[in-house]
Amino acid sequence: MKLADNKATLSFSNGSPSVDLPVYQGNVGPDVIDIRKLYAQTGMFTYDPGFLSTASCQSAITYIDGDKGELLYRGYPIEQLATQCDFMETCHLLLYGNLPDAAAKIDFTKRVTNHTMVNEQMQFFLRGFRRDAHPMAIMTGLVGALSAFYHDSTDINNPEHREISAIRLIAKMPTLVAMAYKYSAGQPYMYPKNKLSYAGNFLHMMFANPCEDYEVNPVIERALDRIFVLHADHEQNASTSTVRLCGSSGTNPFAAIAAGVACLWGPAHGGANEACLNMLEDIQRMGGVSKVGQFMDQVKDKNSNVKLMGFGHRVYKNYDPRAKLMQETCKEVLTSLGLENDPLFKLAMALEKIALEDDYFVQRKLYPNVDFYSGIVQRAIGIPVSLFTAIFALARTVGWIAQLNEMIGDPEYKIGRPRQLFTGSVRRDVLPIAQR
Ligand code: CMC
C-alpha cells in the first residue's frame, strides 16, 4: 500500500485530543483512511452498516468506477474481455493476473477439463433432496459437500491445495448445476464431454439426453460464455465479502465458496435475475406493456415495497456496463432463435425506457444492472427461471476463489471480526422463574 502525502486528522468537540490517521492511495479510485489503530488510540469504533464507506481489504483483481460505469478485471475493460476473450481466458486472468497466451490457454483448459466429473457418490447425495427443491438450496449443499469428497485439497494455507481446489471448483460447478437441473427434471445425469468448450459442455450436460444426439448451437454457446465472463467477478460485493470472511477463519475453500453461494441466493444480489424475470412475467400476466405505468407507480410508492428488479446498484451510479453487453447478447440470441418479438423483451425495453426518463430513477441514479437482461437470455436458451442464480454462482466461482486466494496471500489479512454499537440491555441479574 502506498502512503499518501497527507494525513487525516480526527478531532472531537469534547476536548479529547485529536488523532492523526494515515491515508493510503490505491492505483486508482478513492484514497482510504487507515483506522486500524483508532480503537487503541481513542477507545472508539467506527460505525458503517452495509460498508458504505469502508474498504474491507486491499485488492488487485477487479476495479469498478461506478460513476463512469466502468468495470475492469485486472485492468482490462469488461467490453474488451467480453468481445475478445472467452471464459477460460477470463478465469486464467482472474486467478493468475495475466491473460494466457495460446499455449497457456490450452494447458489451463486441459487442467480444468480433467476435473469436470464429480465423485460418483455425489448423485446419491443429491437423492436426499426433494425433486422440487430450489436449485440454490441444492447448490449450497453440493458445494459444501465437495469438502467431504476431496480431502486432499482442503488446507487453505497450502498453496497446492488452494490451486487444486480452485481448478476443481471451476471444473465441477457446471456439472453440479446441470445435475441439480436434471434431478429436478427427473432425467438421467449426463456426464461431461471434455471435447466441448466450457459453455458447450454445460449446455450438453443440461440439454442432452442418452436417447438423442445433441448439437451445441454456437450462438447459444457464445451467449452463455458471455454470461459467464460478465459474472466472473465484481470486487467486494456481498457474496465475495462472505467468501473472504468465511475463509478468514481458515476454513477449507469448498466451505468458503458454499458460503458465497448461500449469500448470492438473496434477491438483492444474485437472486435478482430470477426475481426480475418473475417480475416481467407478472407484469405480462397483468396486461403487459399497457400496465407498465401502473407498475411504475407501485415501484415509486415507498409503502408498496415493490422494487424494479434488475435496476439499481450500490456501486454503479451510471449504466452497468455488463447490462449493455447483456442487452446486445439478448438481441443476438432472440434473433438467432426467431424470437425477435418476444413479449418479455419488449416489456423490458419499455420498462427501461420509462425508468431512464423518470425523475424517481434519474434523481437516484438508478440504471439497469446485469440482471435486467440476463434472465431473458437464459429463458430463451431454455434454462428454467429457478436455475438462473445457480448459473450466476457457477460463473462467480472463479472470482470468489481468486479473491479468497488473494486474501490468504495478503500479509495484512486477519480473521474478519467486525465490532458493534451495543444497544441492548446493560448487565442485569436473572430472577428466579416465579418472579419474572
Ligand atoms: N427500484 C426502486 N427503487 C430503488 C431500486 C429499485 N430497483 N433500487 C434502489 N431504489 C431506491 C431506494 O428505495 C432508495 O430510495 P430512497 O433514497 O428514496 O430511500 C434509493 O433508490 C437508494 O437505494 P438503496 O436501497 O439505498 O441502495 P443500495 O445500494 O442499498 O441497494 C440494490 C442496491 C442493488 C440492493 C438495490 O438497488 C436493489 O434492491 N435493486 C433491485 C435488486 C437488484 O436488481 N439487484 C441486483 C444487483 S446487480 C447483481 C449483483 O451484483 O448481485
**Element order: H for helix, E for strand:** EEEHEEEHHHHHHHHHHHHHHHHH
Strand order of the largest sheet: 1-2-3
Uncertain stretches of 5 or more adjacent residues: none
Major sheet size, sense and barrel closure: 3 strands, antiparallel
Query: What amount of the residues lies in strands?
Result: 5-15%
State the shape.
globular
What is the strand tally? Answer: 6
Radius of gyration: 24 Å
Q: Work out the helix count.
A: 18
Q: Give the % helix.
A: 40-55%
Overall pLDDT confidence: 94
Q: Helix/strand-derived class?
A: mainly alpha
Bound molecules: carboxymethyl coenzyme *A
State the end-to-end CA separation: 56 Å
